[in-house]
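As promised in the previous annual report, we have extended the structural survey to additional targets. Below is the entry for Icc protein.
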Amino acid sequence: MPNVSTLTTEDPVLLVQLSDSHLFADADGSLLGLKTAQSLQQVIDRVRAEQPQIDLLLATGDLTQDGSVEAYQRFRALSSQLSAPARWIPGNHDQMPHMREATVQSRLLEPVVDIGNWRITLLNSAVPHSTPGYLEEDQLQLLAQSLSEAPDRHHLVCLHHHPVSVGCQWLEPIGLRNAKEFWAVLDRYPQARAVLWGHVHQPFDQQRNGLRLLASPSTCIQFAVGSPDFQVSSEAPGYRWLRLQPDGTLQTGVSRLTDFTFEPDYSANNY
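The corresponding structure token record, generated without further manual editing, is:
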């Protein structure tokens, strides 16, 4: 596993986010008829073609669907093709004991990364056996400490669950349950620049009090944008890239697979 690159505070930082891969112990495991390991491999191939030099890879939860050690090992092996340092956070489908077992003697679960002129803080919003998210007190303290200890850096905060509405009624109850407490911390620190999450299987890009709010596609199935009920769209899997500039600005975009055809099979298995 490569170390985080020794960029100076005057260098831009290129991040790639992979989210919601939903891998299984079985390499041919599928979600609503889509083989998730296969789609992740295709997304990784696209990343390799488009992003030759990645400074940090972020995996923002639901790496697995079944929480198995084998699925985490598969994610680690597939993502290592990118030859970039990486950090992981869990989502509601993940199992932390198995995630820790699969990442032993690595830095994959370290929650704070200083890179370039930025600090990236990765929070665990997952609650065992629960779909909605919640930031326990230790996570809120981690966030406050991380922000307060690096006042001269620009800050990107990552978590799995959405802390604002993304416009899908069915997703409203399964976001971050204590978003008010999360924002109460962030709003105290003007050096915070952006919040990045997964969980919603769709792009999102808005502003809140000068903060950039970003969500991203899944590397497997996509949720229909604006749908009041659970609905999977036929849009292709993808990833998000972020270029963090030394002055605190960022550029970002989403890239999806091309020549991808998928019709969800709702009878195949329940998401």
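The first helix runs from residue 36 to 50. The first strand starts at residue 13 and ends at 18. These points will be discussed at the next consortium meeting with the crystallography subgroup.
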